[in-house]
Specification:
binds 3'-phosphate-adenosine-5'-phosphate sulfate; alpha/beta; disulfide bond; 15% strand; P-loop_NTPase; five-stranded parallel beta sheet; glycoprotein
Length: 297
Amino acid sequence: APVEYYLQQNASLQEMPMPEVAVASNTSDYYSSQSQPPGTSRHIPQTIIVGVRKGGTRALLEMLDIHPNIVVAATEVHFFDWDENYIKGTEWYRNLMPFSYKNQITIEKTPGYFTSLHAPKRIHDMNSSVKLLIILRDPTERVISDYTQVYYNRLESHKPVQRFEDIVIKNGVLNTKYKAIQRSLYDVHMERWLKYFNMNQIHIVDGNTLIKTPLKELQKVERFLNLPPRIVSSNFYFNQTKGFYCIRSDGKERCLHESKGRPHPVVNGTVLEQLYSYFREHNRSFYKMVNQSFNWH
Ligand SMILES: Nc1ncnc2c1ncn2[C@@H]1O[C@H](COP(=O)(O)OS(=O)(=O)O)[C@@H](OP(=O)(O)O)[C@H]1O
C-alpha cells in the first residue's frame, strides 16, 4: 500500500499525542482569554508551523513568542488536518487565534499538518502567500521520540507497551509500515507541500540545532519573517536538571512541559544502523528537494 494509506491511519487513539498544555501564564493563551485590548483583533495566521511531530514544534513556538511582534495560539488547532474541524470554516479557525495588534503576526502550530494529505491544499486555499515553518530533526531520532511519547501515553492509560526493537523489527526485517517510520520520510511529505508552495515561502528549522543553540535558529526565523531582531542570548538559559534550554522573557523564567525532552530508550546498535540506512536515500532526496543539507545519519 502507498505511504498515504498508512498515514491515513494516523487517527488511531493510541498514537495520539497527549493534549498539549500551555507552559506558562504569559503565553498568548492567557492573553486571548482576557477581554479584547483596544486596537486589537483576531487574525488568521500569517505563519504556520506545520510540523513535524516531535521535531521541536512546541519549543519553536514558545521561543518565537518571546518576540514582541509575534503572538501565538496556545493550543494545537488541527484545523487543516482534521475534517471535523475543517468543515467548521475559517471564521471558527480565526476565533481560536489570540488578539493581536497591527504590527504583530499570528502563528499557530499543529505538527500533524506536515504529514497530512489535505493540509497543503487547504492552507494554500486559505492564504496562498502564507509563510510556513517546518522543524525537522534526524529522522531516526524522531522515530525514537515518537515511540517514547506513545510509550508514556500507553503507560499512563495502563495499556501494554512494547520494546522499541519489537515494533521496529518484524520477522527479522525493518517494519517500514510503522507509522513513526512513515512520518520520518521527509521527502515523501515535502513533495506534497512543494506542489502548492515555493521554497521561498518555506523555512526549515533544524530541530537538532534548536536544542543545542536555540538563538542561532531563531535569528534565522526572524530574518525569514522579516522581523526586526529582538530575540537575544539572555532570553535563554540552560537548565541542568532538564538538560535543555529554557526561556527567560518579561522577567519570568520557564521551561517546556515535562513531556518535552524525555529520556529516550537505548536502542540496539544494529537496529539503529538499519534505520539510518533506510532513511539515507530519503534524506538525500529531501536535501535535493529543499536545496539544503542537514547532519542526519
Ligand atoms: N528547549 C527545549 N526543551 C524541551 N524540549 C525541546 C527543547 N528544544 C527542542 N526540544 C525537543 O522538542 C521535542 C518535542 O517536539 P514537539 O514539541 O514537536 O512534540 S509534539 O509533536 O508537539 O508532541 C522533544 O523531544 P523528546 O526529546 O523526544 O521529548 C525535545 O527533544
